[in-house]
Amino acid sequence: MAFAFDEEDVQIWTPDQPFPERVANHTGQIFAHNAAFERLIFWYVLCPDYNLPEPALEQFYCTAAQARANCAPGSLEDVGRFAGASMKKDHRGAQLVRKCCVPPFKHTAQDLLDLYDYCAQDVRAMRSISNALRQLSDEELADYHVSERINDRGILVDVPLARAAQQYAAQEVVDLQASIVEITNGAVPTIRSPRMREWVYANVDDDARAVMTDDEGKVTINKSTRAALLRLDTLRLDVREVIEAADDLWSSSVAKFMRMAALADDEDHRVRGAFVFAGGSATGRFASYGLQLHNLTRVSAKDPETLRHAIIRGHKLESGAARTLKTMLRPSIMAAPGRVLINYDWSAIEARVLPWLSGQGQEVLAAFERGEDQYVATARKMFNITEVSPDQRQQAKVAVLACGFAGGAGALQNMAKAYGLPMPDAEAKRLVNLWRSANIWAVHFWQQLDRAAMNAVRHPETPINAGRASYLSYGGHLWYSLPSGRVLCYPNAKFDDEGNITYSKAAWKPAADATEWPRAKLWPGLMAENLTQATAADVLRHALRRLDAEGLEVIMTVHDEIVVECDAADAERVSARVHQIMCEAPDWAQDLPLAAEGGIYQRYC
Got the DSSP string for 10-41? Predict the structure, then answer.
């Protein structure tokens, strides 16, 4: 163990020495990077083995969470590179861990000494980076502790189902290959054929082709390229389906079930530590690792118990293994015997938060207050009509989902394809213009955001307001303050040669030999999206704090959902209380109308 008090020299302790009394008796904060690791080592190894008092969860301060809360990468190695300390990637630590800490051990005495030095340097690096970053506020630290209690409870997974699903691996591959042939009309015989890359390249626009071309001019379709393509608004639906099928094949449902079974505790079948606090570094939203709960398909089997029985018994899956197994990923998360899941999801949270943030969308908010169908209300205004047809409602729905963050015709066409709605170029442009005319508050808000960012960077240390947000350029970063009081930033923001603001994007990792962290262009649509999602995350955090304070056992939070596990006998009371808390806005957002939908379930759905 390497440790230091405040700015004192780093010390090394090894198990052949007496345990340091000063550490054993410490009752203050314990700073560590990815602090859950240190916490669990203390609780389950050091404390029982050396008869030490157990430090409270609230003593631990995670500097990785601190880095993410400051819109920097969470990795200790990467946050140093991000800050410009050194762009050279150092693999020595990982090599030493493999040799010294993973059986069968292959280390020398010198390797151990090198490991101690590396461990001590990690403490120095963590301390230096933490001191250089904005410290977590008391509320952020409390939110981190709430998230750790969620991680410690864990989620119960259906391990027998997960293991039974593995028998369908070969059938899943056949199903996915068949879907590729069908989508491409036979042009791509197999997903691993070079023709898949060629077919995608031939069926995308110039922007997508630029994404597919690396620095050496070679066309790629690797994992990071596929992820970048799927983020494009202009991708055709059939191309999107092919790329998603490739992802499904290379990260199949069977693979997810295998991961689920491997991560589940042998004794109680619960997966713990799945959630990353402030994992969405641009907004502070939760993310997940290990068991990737944030990218499970939303489609669930209508009768999961019957389907589970068929899978356990090895029956042939009539709808095909790939599609059927996908529908059982969510239901594989379940309540313990005698317990139930209380699962609620905020209704249209982003469509409520965006007009509220603008300070100008009162008409939209009033429709939510009255309980109106937002798509019908939008259609009335877009088309200047009283009676709305199903087709007009569908057009308005697509426009609402596509246009709020300054999306144009391409974004609207992409959304329309997802709903099977034909959308010629001229019609897409018309609907975008109609939506913007009906929601002029949004256009004004985008313009406000653009001016605020520009003026803030031009005039450092001068706060510039935009709607309910405020921007400030300070210390080389463009900070923005949310209505809750939480702050985020666009790191290293500056003007480029064309007069655009660019910033270092934490989510984009540089190549090993890169000399500068990748930069992204800041534009009003992105600013509106970040503000909206960050504010929705603050609403979520507020609800989690209240639920935690009442002793209600939150086990999951995915996007805008909260899942509580409770005794079946107490289900109605807990369900009503969860719903009530989620519908009550925080003090800083009393005029934000909230609604939530959900209920009581045996399995996540």
Answer: PEE--TTSPPPHHHHT--S-EEETTHHHHHHH
Both 397 and 345 in a single domain? no
Given this model, what pLDDT does residue 87 score? 41
Residues 282-309: what's their mean pLDDT? 89
What is the count of structural domains for the chain? 4
Give the C-alpha separation, 191 to 115, whole Å.
Answer: 43
Mean pLDDT, residues 461-467 taken together: 97
Domain boundary among 416, 438, 460: 438
Distance from C-alpha of 247 to C-alpha of 222, rounded to nearest angstrom: 10
DSSP-derived 3-state class of residue 67: helix
Beta-carbon-side half-sphere exposure of residue 94 (alpha carbons within 13 Å) = 6
Transcribe 380-429 into DSSP letters. Answer: HHHHT-SS--HHHHHHHHHHHHHHTTS--HHHHHHHHHHTT----HHHHH
Find out whether 390 and 373 touch, Cβ atoms under 8 Å.
no
- Does residue 148 sit within a domain? no
Indicate the residue among 103, 136, 169 that finishes a domain. Answer: 136
Is it the case that residue 85 has pLDDT exceeding 90?
no
Q: List the domain range (segments joined by +) for residue 574.
A: 341-349+533-601
Domain-located, residue 171: yes
pTM equals 0.87
Q: Name residues whose C-beta falls within 8 Å of residue 583's C-beta, 6 or more positions apart in sequence.
A: 594, 595, 596
